[in-house]
Task: inverse folding
């Protein structure tokens, strides 16, 4: 990458810089006119110069130029003779000119600033893109040594100030020095002596300030590195947070962070001191010049009488134009140094020449040619970063479409060979070939499409399961997205912008999925293929369960929502007819549901947001008004009192850490004294007399009451009827402002806030029924099967977001998913390197069998070669060939049968593994 | 069935007979009522034990695994407590309990049960008494069985 910032800017923005320079130059005449105009307005029409006689006129807008005599006999070229205007009209005309200039100047400024901003942002975009582009082309081992959070802060924050500077990189110094030179020249013309004084002070500044700044630059550099290291440490703290807790090192980390912040603080403080000292010096020097003018010039005027007053005043007036451009120039120079340091400090991290060529990652739209032949390693040697030998001169040849197992102890070289074959660990000696091509010279469009790799660690992107599954099929945009005319236009603009910034123009919104590579003719077959792969890796049930716990947006999937309602009805019908009738208590708008809380019975819906959340419910004014409507507020208040009394009677003797408290759902141990105090406060008060806070505390208890769970026999049929009336009143009178705070239960419609499973169940499982949840789950499964809804539910499961790094999935699921991702692209070679550590021995055996069977076609021919570095050597017998590694060397290669018969390392490893 | 009814049931169980009513109420309040339908198992032999059950209504079969299949060794009825051995001794379930009719139980979790014993010596003594009773019964049955075997000439 270009190491010099200015050259980088010039290389990429040359034309824009020249243009903006030109535009600024064009804006200058109007700019100066604008400054000159007020003087004219005051002098001519207002003070009346030239209007001395009544009715006099002055010529306005006369275009008259002095030209050499050969062009015109009078020496004047008169292009336009102008208008003759009276005094007030003249004022009007000049004011109109003033207004016009205001507009023109404003528009120039607007244009120039926008242009500079856009230019800077474009270049910044280019730079950021290039940095990320390089990260993806660096060797994996190099990238692994980089700290993610440091790279992130470099790409995002450290280059940010460049954006502002780039637009000003050439324009500002050109014009500021132009202005400064003009002012200096003017002073020189007025009086060379005084001019020389001004000039030598500017020279002195130019000499002194860079020297003062030298230390500033060091500080700037140091500060940048420290800030970056801080970002790195923050990243480490987050990544290693469990270690911090496990080792009680939080205070060590605090001290470390404090120390780093301390260093940054003192660096910044020193830089402030120096910066403002330089400022002070600058100001001082620019103020000392007029002092010298007054003093020395005055001396010449008064004592020597060699200078006249007019000249001195002219010099002093001219001087007032000098300090501003000089100061701005100095500021610009400061920014320049700043960003130059920032730039070079970033570039240095990305400067490695070890980048892959751009061609190796070129976009290839068609499908890649299949690999065939043999995998041949000749004299292969591999070292790690420290130079330790992982493999020493191994040679082997294996047919590509064969099932090969690799076994060996830890550090035997078995794992390393997996990485070598996956192109993650370049050999330091020898060569590895597939067919007649060097594996490490294949373009990624071939290796990445025809070879699949599942490593010991799985990395999933924070996206849906489906996106992760199809990730390996997204090599190039296969189909353009369908854009409306308006979107198309916007897209064209985006493309031209991307081109200007040297970014790729590939459209992320297009369909990137390479169906052909997955062996399909189109998108419509994808669901089937996904199902197939999920079955192969045994993830179908997991996805189904995820789907049951998933949410859908009924507006987006009205068909599915409708079918779920059908499933709900069928389930309820089936339950009614079976002996499970008492297990589920469906939500019936006309019946009190004994298995849920009093609050839920009144609300009869799912709360959205805070208004009706459990904590705020007892203070919700609308709900309280509904309760007051049929006197329920008093009833529930008294009920809360009874509940509190019972609980206090039962629990007040127990110490707060007594395990019985874990079984108490209505209160915590800490609440007991509070409620005790409350009860004594309100013992003689009825609902109206109690303060709202006490009302709320007691209402909260009765709101959470469930008769079959708490069994205090506080509910009777009369109360149930009254609560039902309250339910009706609540939904009928729901104010518009609260309509969005609750999704009411409706047997005929899908509840978007509840999971698929809850939507099907649409009720509560009764308390105290042994295995109730399981029985209901089974009933739901059979209903979904009967209605053919299983695939649709699995589809919802595929939409589940796996979270950062896939942490929302279990380790086993993550590993299975990464295998599914490797299989779905139908690779020629599937490399599995010590994967599936989360599976138990039995599951591992099954997984090997599943995979080896799964890559065969219907005629039993292997469609992919499998190269499996096994954790458990016993499984090697299931493969066609075994490579045995020991101490970095390949010691045996044969069929498992042949190796079993003789005294071999293989037999030893297998015996050991048992 | 309300909490008060459950307290009544608990009082009729010999194990809890001497515990004050307020403590029984606490026990009832913090334990879960569980209904098993006919044929359902309360627990299965060999499973880890996490709770004992007080039978409030219905009856259940006590089954043990034998070489020829499960054999019924006893029947438990209302007011009996089952599953206490597994949680007292931390051993897997020694038998399977299968509901012969609809069985209503009070499920007492392991920690709750142990807490009860620690808190109420009366209960501990009562449990010792029940266990000793069972042991003497078992010993008597064992003696009878041995004698029978001797008579048969084994």
Result:
């Amino acid at each position: 990458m270009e190491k010099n910032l200015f050259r980088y800017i010039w290389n990429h923005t040359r034309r824009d810089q020249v243009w903006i320079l030109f535009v600024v130059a064009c804006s200058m005449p109007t700019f100066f006119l604008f400054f000159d105009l007020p003087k004219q307005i005051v002098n001519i029409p207002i003070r009346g110069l030239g209007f001395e006689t009544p009715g006099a006129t002055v010529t306005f807008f006369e275009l008259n130029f002095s030209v050499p005599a050969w062009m015109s006999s009078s020496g004047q070229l008169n292009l336009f003779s102008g208008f003759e205007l009276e005094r007030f009209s003249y004022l009007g005309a000049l004011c109109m000119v003033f207004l016009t200039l205001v507009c023109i100047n404003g528009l120039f400024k607007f244009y120039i600033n926008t242009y500079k901003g856009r230019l800077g942002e474009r270049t910044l975009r280019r730079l950021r893109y290039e940095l990320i582009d390089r990260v993806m082309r660096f060797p994996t081992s190099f990238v692994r040594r980089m700290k993610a959070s440091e790279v992130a802060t470099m790409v995002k924050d450290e280059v940010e100030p460049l954006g502002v500077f780039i637009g000003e990189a050439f324009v500002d110094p050109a014009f500021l020095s132009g202005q400064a030179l003009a002012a200096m020249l003017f002073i020189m013309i007025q009086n060379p002596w005084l001019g020389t004084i001004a000039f030598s002070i500017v020279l002195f500044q130019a000499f002194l300030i860079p020297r003062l700044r030298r230390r500033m630059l060091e500080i700037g550099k140091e500060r940048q590195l420290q800030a970056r290291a801080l970002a790195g440490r923050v990243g480490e703290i987050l990544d290693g947070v469990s270690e911090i807790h496990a080792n009680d090192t939080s205070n060590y980390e605090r001290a470390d962070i404090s120390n780093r912040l301390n260093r940054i603080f003192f660096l910044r403080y020193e830089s402030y001191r120096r910066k403002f000292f330089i400022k002070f010096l600058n100001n001082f020097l620019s103020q000392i010049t007029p002092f010298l003018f007054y003093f020395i010039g005055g001396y010449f005027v008064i004592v020597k009488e060699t200078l006249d007053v007019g000249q001195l005043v002219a010099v002093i007036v001219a001087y007032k134009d000098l300090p501003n451009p000089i100061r701005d120039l100095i500021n610009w120079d400061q920014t320049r140094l700043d960003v130059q340091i920032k730039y070079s400090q970033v570039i240095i991290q990305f400067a490695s020449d070890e980048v892959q060529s751009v061609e190796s990652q070129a976009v290839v739209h068609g499908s890649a040619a299949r690999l065939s032949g043999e995998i041949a390693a000749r004299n292969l040697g591999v070292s790690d970063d420290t130079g330790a030998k992982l493999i020493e001169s191994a040679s082997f040849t294996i047919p590509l479409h064969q099932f090969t197992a690799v076994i060996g102890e830890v550090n035997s070289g078995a794992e390393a060979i997996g990485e070598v074959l996956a192109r993650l660990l370049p050999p330091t000696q020898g060569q590895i070939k597939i067919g007649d091509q060097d594996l490490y010279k294949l373009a990624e469009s071939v290796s990445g499409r025809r070879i699949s790799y599942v490593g010991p660690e799985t990395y999933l992107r924070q996206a849906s399961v489906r996106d992760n599954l199809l990730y390996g099929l997204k090599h190039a945009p296969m189909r353009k997205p369908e854009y409306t005319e308006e979107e198309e236009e916007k897209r064209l603009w985006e493309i031209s912008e991307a081109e200007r910034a040297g970014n790729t123009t590939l459209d992320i919104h297009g369909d990137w999925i390479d169906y052909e590579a997955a062996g399909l003719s189109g998108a419509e077959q994808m669901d089937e293929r996904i199902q197939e792969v999920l079955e192969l890796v045994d993830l179908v049930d997991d996805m189904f369960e995820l789907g049951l716990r998933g949410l859908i947006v009924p507006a987006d999937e009205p068909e599915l929502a409708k079918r779920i309602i059908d499933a709900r009805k069928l389930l309820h019908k089936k339950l009614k007819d079976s002996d499970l009738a008492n297990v589920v208590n469906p939500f019936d708008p006309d019946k009190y549901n004994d298995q849920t809380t009093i609050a839920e019975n009144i609300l009869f819906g799912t709360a959205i947001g805070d208004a009706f959340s459990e904590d705020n419910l007892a203070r919700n004014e609308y709900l309280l008004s509904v309760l007051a409507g049929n006197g329920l507020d008093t009833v529930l208040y008294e009920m809360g009192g009874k509940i509190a009394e019972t609980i206090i009677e039962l629990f007040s003797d127990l110490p707060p850490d007594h395990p019985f408290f874990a079984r108490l759902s209505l209160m915590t141990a800490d609440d007991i004294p509070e409620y005790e105090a409350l009860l004594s406060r309100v013992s003689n008060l009825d609902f109206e007399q109690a303060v709202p806070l006490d009302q709320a505390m007691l209402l909260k208890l009765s709101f959470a009451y469930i008769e079959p769970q708490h069994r205090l026999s506080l509910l009777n049929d009369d109360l149930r009827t009254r609560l039902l009336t309250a339910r009706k009143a609540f939904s009928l009178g729901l104010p518009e402002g609260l309509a969005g705070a609750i999704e009411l239960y409706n047997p005929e419609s899908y509840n978007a806030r509840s999971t698929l499973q809850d939507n099907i169940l649409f009720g509560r499982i009764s308390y105290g029924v042994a295995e109730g949840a399981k029985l209901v789950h089974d009933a739901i499964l059979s209903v979904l099967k009967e209605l053919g809804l299983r695939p649709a539910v699995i589809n919802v499961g595929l939409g589940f977001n796996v979270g950062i790094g896939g942490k929302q999935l279990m380790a086993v699921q993550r590993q299975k998913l990464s295998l599914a991702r490797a299989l779905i692209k139908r690779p020629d070679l599937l490399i599995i390197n010590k994967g599936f550590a989360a599976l138990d021995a039995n599951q591992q055996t099954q997984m090997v069998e599943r995979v080896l069977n799964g890559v065969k076609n219907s005629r039993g021919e292997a469609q992919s070669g499998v190269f499996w570095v096994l954790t458990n050597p016993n499984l090697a017998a299931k493969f066609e060939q075994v490579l045995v590694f020991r101490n970095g060397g390949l010691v045996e290669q044969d069929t498992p049968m042949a190796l079993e018969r003789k005294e071999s390392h293989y037999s030893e490893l297998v015996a050991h593994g048992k | 069935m309300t909490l008060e009814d459950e307290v009544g049931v608990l009082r009729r169980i010999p194990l809890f007979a001497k515990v004050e009513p307020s403590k029984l109420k606490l026990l009832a309040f913090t334990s879960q009522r569980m209904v098993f339908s006919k044929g359902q198992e309360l627990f299965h032999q060999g499973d880890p034990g996490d709770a004992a059950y007080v039978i409030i209504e219905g009856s259940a079969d006590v089954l043990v695994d034998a070489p020829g299949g499960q054999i019924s060794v006893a029947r438990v009825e209302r007011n009996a407590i089952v599953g206490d051995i597994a949680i007292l001794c931390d051993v897997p379930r020694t038998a399977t309990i299968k509901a012969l009719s609809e069985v209503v139980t009070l499920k007492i979790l392991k920690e709750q049960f142990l807490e009860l014993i620690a808190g109420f010596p009366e209960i501990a003594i009562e449990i010792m008494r029940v266990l000793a009773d069972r042991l003497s019964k078992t010993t008597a049955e064992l003696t009878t069985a041995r004698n029978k075997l001797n008579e048969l000439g084994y």
User: Anything to note?
Assistant: Chain A has three domains: 115-349, 356-537+806-914, 608-743. Chain A has 33 helices and 20 strands.
